[in-house]
Write a structure and sequence with these properties.
- It is a single chain.
- The protein is α/β, with parallel strands linked by helices.
- It has a single domain, classed as Rossmann fold (3-Layer(aba) Sandwich), CATH 3.40.50.880.
- Helices cover 34% and strands 24% of the residues.
- The protein is built from eight helices and eleven strands.
- A nine-stranded mixed beta sheet has the order 2-1-3-4-11-10-9-6-7, with helices on both faces. Strands 5-8 form a two-stranded antiparallel ribbon.
- A hairpin with a 6-residue loop joins strand 9 and strand 10.
- The termini are close together.
C-alpha cells in the first residue's frame, strides 16, 4: 500500500504526538503507512502525488481567517505550503480529508468565505447529514447515522461555500459541518480524530487560547463525560479503507 500523509501544524510536540497517535489508531494505519509532515517547521515531503494514497490535515492553534499581519512566521510558512499542496491535490485528484483547521484551509483554497460568524466553543454538538451526505461514498463507507454527535471547538467556520462545493453535514450553530469539493476532497468542522478523553486532553493544552473560558473548564469536562461521540472517528477508518492504493 502507498502511504498516507498526515499534515500537522501544531508547534507543541506533546500535542502533535498525541494527535498523530489518534489518527493512526482511528484510521487503523501502521506507523510506516502514515508519513508525518509538520508544515509549521518543514516543507511537505519530497513525494510525487502518485506515490501516496491520500492526505489528512487535522486541527491547529492557527486560525486561517486571521489577518495576515496577525499571523506568525510559522503560520504563514505552513499556510503557504498547504496552499501549494492543495494545488497538487486538485491537479492530481489526491484524496484529502481536512478537520477543523483543515476546513478553514481547504475552504480558503476553494474560495469559501471563512470567518468567525459560526465559531463554536469547546463541546459536543448535534450533526445532521444532508441528502447529499447520505449518498456520499465516504459517508456511506463510514456508516454514519443521519444525526450524530460531533466534538468541536473552533473560532472560525465556513460562512458560505462556493457553488462547486457540496454540504454533506450541517449543525444548528455552524451550518457547514462537512463538505466535499472535487471528486474526493473533504473537510469537517467537527473532529474525527478526537474522542471524549482526547478532546479533554487537548483542551487542557489550549485552555488559554480562547476556545472557551478557563473558568468554565471543569463544567465543560463534566458535561463531556456523558457524551457518546463514537461515530466521527469512523470517517478516518473509512478514508483509509476507501482510498488506500
Amino acid at each position: 500500500m502507498k502511504p498516507f500523509v498526515q499534515i500537522a501544524t501544531r508547534p507543541e510536540d506533546d500535542v502533535a504526538l498525541t494527535e498523530r497517535a489518534a489518527v493512526l489508531d482511528f484510521a487503523g494505519l501502521a506507523e510506516e503507512e502514515l508519513l508525518w509532515a509538520r508544515l509549521d517547521r518543514e516543507p511537505f515531503p519530497d513525494l510525487a502525488m502518485d506515490e501516496i494514497s491520500g492526505i489528512i490535515l487535522c486541527g491547529s492553534p492557527f486560525t486561517a481567517s486571521d489577518p495576515i499581519e496577525d499571523k506568525s512566521d510559522a503560520q504563514l510558512r505552513a499556510e503557504k505550503e498547504i496552499d501549494r499542496v492543495l494545488d497538487a491535490v486538485f491537479a492530481h485528484d489526491v484524496p484529502f480529508l481536512g478537520a477543523c483547521y483543515g476546513i478553514g484551509t481547504l475552504g480558503t483554497h476553494i474560495g469559501a468565505r471563512i470567518d468567525r460568524t459560526y465559531g463554536e466553543p469547546l463541546g459536543a454538538v448535534e450533526v445532521s447529514l444532508t441528502d447529499a451526505g447520505r449518498e456520499d461514498p465516504l459517508v456511506r463507507e463510514a456508516r454514519l447515522e443521519d444525526t450524530f454527535t460531533g466534538l468541536v471547538g473552533h473560532k472560525e467556520a465556513v460562512h458560505t461555500l462556493p457553488e462547486h462545493a457540496v454540504t454533506l453535514a450541517t449543525g444548528r450553530t455552524s451550518p457547514v459541518q462537512m463538505f466535499r469539493v472535487g471528486t474526493r476532497q473533504y473537510a469537517t468542522q467537527f473532529h474525527p480524530e478526537l474522542d471524549v478523553p482526547s478532546i479533554i486532553e487537548r483542551a487542557r493544552a489550549y485552555r488559554d487560547h480562547g476556545y472557551f473560558s478557563p473558568d468554565e473548564m471543569d463544567d465543560i469536562f463534566t458535561s463531556l463525560q456523558h457524551v457518546d461521540a463514537d461515530q466521527p472517528p469512523r470517517l478516518l477508518r473509512a478514508f483509509a479503507t476507501l482510498f488506500a492504493r
